[in-house]
Amino acid sequence: MKVLVVGGGGREHAIVWKLSQSPRVAKLYCAPGNGGIASLAECVNIKATDLEGIAAFAKENQIDLTVVAPDDPLAMGMVDRLEVEGLCAFGPRKAAAELESSKVFAKQFMKKYGIPSAKYEAFDRYEDAVSYLAQSQFPIVIKADGLALGKGVVIAFSLEEGITAVKEMMLDRKFGDAGKRVLIEEFLTGPEVSILAFTDGNTFVPMVSSQDHKRAYDNDEGPNTGGMGAFSPSRYYTPEIAQYVEKNIIEPTIRGMREEGRTFQGVIYFGLMLTPSGPKVLEYNARFGDPETQVVLPRLKTDLLEIMEAVIEKRLNQVRIQWDDRAAVCVVLASAGYPGSYRKGLPIEINTDCLIFHAGTKRTEHGLVTDGGRVLGVTALGENVEDCVRKVYEHIKSIHFEGMHYRRDIGRK
Ligand SMILES: Nc1ncnc2c1ncn2[C@@H]1O[C@H](COP(=O)(O)OP(=O)(O)O)[C@@H](O)[C@H]1O
Ligand SMILES: [Mg+2]
To answer: Which of 49, 109, 147, 227 has its CA 20 to 30 A from that of 94?
Structure first.
């Protein structure tokens, strides 16, 4: 089979790496891919958000399966677009992807189906949001409705901070139309766990649990990033909690989407907070998470292609999905300055053969160079998380680029 993966970050490298192990994959393409993906797939220079370009390429090259990995093309309806051409695509259609692309939709949905989540109010007028804030307790959480590159959530500790956040989103349009509407949410506390699940709209199969580290520096200090590392499993996600989550969160979500006429087929991500009053959903993603995928897929023993086909053909109940008992840890090596501005094109030296998922790299005639804020995700499997941590940091000693920075406390939450 010929398979095309859309995207070009660490998550897509992990997906391509896993698909490349399938005996039934004859040829892999990735659009646009990156310097690491290039060793496993033919990278084609089409943007992940170019619906027409991807559809034309898939048609011309008789691609048997297109895997749409990032949030933007899913929200734009890339899967629907491919299906119009009679092409086979993995990922939710636009109407199902709205679970991620509109936080207001997600909250209304959860309320309707009794799925535990923070209390909220939604606003499309600045004045109303401000008067609501004026009679609220702090801290409180303010969220832009739409996709905002993971930057659209502010925890406001005072009325003043709250008003600033609402003004930046609604009036200054810091995130464009994504901030046209905002949510103001109850502030919850507790450890955060990420749960991914495969679903064909009827059956769902949860993957192994994971946790990510979003802040730039050790001890969860500094600005938010796309993710500085992840580990799997989470020690907080006990079998009892898993059972509760499957019954009260995952099952009603999959059923509710079906009842809404928005059957969800693909990978669904539950961002959970384990609060003193039970697990609650912070958000949904309509796809594999990054960097969680880099620790979850290395633990998957079953052929990913088979699972994806079963999801599309709605026969996931016939597949037995198996997991490696070992733990996994991924540490992200970032460019100096990230998540602010950073230089690109710096040579990368790698003197280890461990598992590395490239996030922002490029192959040039002078060798591998940096090409993004997050550059590499160094990954290890081991007996437990501590064992993986030891291995990963040992491998990192053999990797170098100018200004390379990374957290030293991944896996220690
Ligand atoms: N209701 C809440 N209470 C406390 N913290 C929250 C709440 N909602 C979100 N957060 C924090 O903000 C982060 C980002 O929020 P999330 O809803 O996941 O949006 P996104 O990933 O799109 O930025 C969460 O990982 C969590 O740490
Ligand atoms: Mg999130």
So the answer is: 227
